[in-house]
Design a protein that fits this description.
This protein is mostly helical. Helix content is 80%, strand content 0%.
Length: 117
Amino acid sequence: MKASKSITPRAHPLWLAYALHRLSGLGLALFLPLHFWVLALAVTNPGQLDRFLQLTDSGIIKLAEFGLVFLLAVHFFGGLRLIALEWLPWTAPQKSLAAGAAAVSFMVATLFLLKAI
């Protein structure tokens, strides 16, 4: 009788997708209080909002904005992946196409970042 290999959870190919989805959700949750504070400045103190928005012209802030958009995309597509895995039958070629689409999306986002910097 042949012994079957057992795969540890972290060695499974989709574990990275699981981890990225959870970490992106955590990153977005940490960003939300700052976002709501800036929105409140628009209503309560426009002068302070203008000073804050002047900071957004620096390269490090643009890099952080890229990171935020990347987190949003990862979390959004991770959620769509979960829905698709639950509701749709997948074949191996379809999984490869989905991974390729994610890679192309990342490259397009990187090009937008490079243009902004």
